[in-house]
Write a structure and sequence with these properties.
This protein has 274 residues and is an alpha/beta fold. It has ten helices and 16 strands. The chain has an eight-stranded mixed sheet, sandwiched between helices. The radius of gyration is 21 Å and the shape is globular. The N and C termini lie far apart (79 Å). 40% of the residues are buried.
Length: 274
């Protein structure tokens, strides 16, 4: 008598339990920001080895990061958080910053967009500025603008990084360097001593290529970026044509940057102030 049907049913049940457990782990880590692996094992009544296997799979899908015995959704100075986690952080502020950035875009321009979640808030509003050419290395932006009337979308390929849903590497930077855009809009992971920083050199390389390939450059930074730390320097904020922040940004940061000659735009509901 064949037991293949029983084996198939058993495999399906195991996969269902694994998927449910991984969803629960993801939700727990995203809710708390970071949890030690031993605590996850105790919370879900599974072995540490099972937690490691689950986290390896979740990290491969770009949902969580695993580093030094800790599962994390938040950025550290060495590790950037996944775009899934970042997209839910400071969402109202990011939306206001994105709307303020829209004022810098004119119909007919070629605009470069990075893989930041703040920039993603800008994408749904781009139709108001048609016709446009949008250049990006971010898969989620490509999918969002696919088939949009009046928008020519140039997708830049390369090595795909699941945690940020974007392409990076030498292929990417070489392709960007062969273009020229009217405007580059990007964000940053951290600001220290009025310099933009990121956790990975791959991210730095792509953003720098975009910066060099554009006539004007606008940096988007919500108030939390002034409290973060990261390892690799991108550029001083004085190099950007404008820096857009939200209304919760410490006034001392705004005044200091303006005294250095930076055009600081404060994004507010209804209007932005300069």
């Amino acid at each position: 008598m064949s037991l293949d049907g029983d084996d198939t049913a058993g495999d399906g049940l195991r996969q269902s339990r694994q998927s449910a457990r991984q969803r629960a782990i993801t939700e727990a880590v995203m809710a708390e920001g970071s949890i030690r692996i031993e605590q996850l094992a105790e919370r879900f009544d599974i072995s540490v080895m099972t937690v490691h296997r689950d986290l390896d799979e979740l990290e491969g899908r770009g949902l969580l990061r695993k580093s030094r015995g800790v599962a994390t959704a938040m950025s550290t100075s060495l590790v950037e958080s996944s775009d899934v986690y970042r997209s839910n952080r400071q969402s109202p502020e990011k939306e206001m910053i994105a709307l303020a950035a829209l004022d810098f875009i004119e119909p007919g321009q070629a605009v470069m967009l990075d893989d930041s979640t703040t920039t993603m808030h800008l994408v749904p509003h781009l139709r108001a500025k048609r016709p446009l050419t949008v250049i990006t290395h971010t898969l989620t932006i490509m999918e969002e603008l696919r088939g949009a009337n009046g928008i020519t979308m140039l997708g830049v390929g390369g090595q795909y990084y699941n945690w940020c849903s974007s392409f990076m590497g030498r292929i990417t930077t070489t392709a960007i360097s062969a273009m020229h855009a009217d405007l580059a809009i990007m964000s940053t992971a951290a600001i220290t001593d009025d310099i933009a920083y990121h956790q990975t050199l791959e991210t730095i390389d792509v953003k720098r290529a975009m910066f060099d390939a554009a006539s004007r450059r606008v940096l988007l930074a919500d108030h939390t970026k002034f409290e973060q730390r990261a390892l690799h320097a991108l550029l001083p904020l004085t190099d950007f044509d404008a820096v857009i922040v939200d209304a919760r940004t410490d006034r001392a940061h705004v005044e200091r940057l303006r005294n250095k000659g930076v055009e600081v735009v404060i994004a507010k509901r209804g209007a932005a102030s300069r």
